[in-house]
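Table S2 (continued). Query chain:
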Amino acid sequence: MSEREKNGEFKSFTDFCERMSGESVNKKCIESLIKAGAFDEFEQTRSTLLASFEGILDTINDTSRKTMQGQVTMFDLGKAEDEKIENMKYNFTTLKEFDEKELLSMEKEMLGIYISGHPLEKLKEKIQQVATINTLQMMQMNEANNLNDDGKQVKYVGIINSIKKKYTKRNTLMAFMTVEDLYGSTEIIVFDSCYSKSQNILIEDNIVLIDGRLSIREDEPVKIVANTITEFNGKKGDRPLFCQTTKMDKPKTLTINITNISEIQKDKLRGAIKFFSGDRNNIAVQVNDNGTLKPCGTIYFNEQILKAFEEIVGQENIEVK
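Corresponding output:
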């Protein structure tokens, strides 16, 4: 802000990098600014900037170093041809922009909130047709402190923000989820009977329909205890998905090619592998990183879980043998 107020607005991403060189704005900071959308007003896409910024910063640092040593660089030549030299200076790896879901996910990761939109905005009308309660109404219940609605059957649609799994006394898994709609977030309690039926869709950033009952206690936020959880896409016929054994030919290895996927996809992939690892593991997982195969443990696997991995990295990057 100080630099902008002193010397005028930044004209481009490279102008920002040049002017902030030597300041306390390191690569990690610039990467975070890109993900948050701080450079969206300039012509490059976020995907292009994420693929290019490190090389650009290295070029600037190298040029500064040579200048301090008294060496003449190509940047000192032909100053009348600024635009031509600008193109020679920096190499952008031009990529197609991330889809809206990934862009919003980056904003949420960096800032804790969505900036350029909300994943549920396009589904707002369809959600209103299905849901019988939203977070705003639940906050109003908190303020009213009315216990009469305890146990009331409700339907709630939101996007999964976080999942915490816990073993019960019977050594079965249950979960506590934070799920967000257009008005805020709430806690969903998923007991073992519901968890065992829907565990394959309980993944962060999934949009789900929760059919359950209200849990209202004095001096506690209103929660929902889930009976069934459905993957929600706004289409008719959404119904609970069950984690069943399929008729797949007992594959031994799931190979995932990560050579050309984004860092966001890699983070989601790591989360999915960890999530689907449990007591019933039936397949080994390995990643192909530019021709090098690296083992990644084992997971429980069926056709629906295969679909979840395909949605993260693309069907073309999955091989099951």
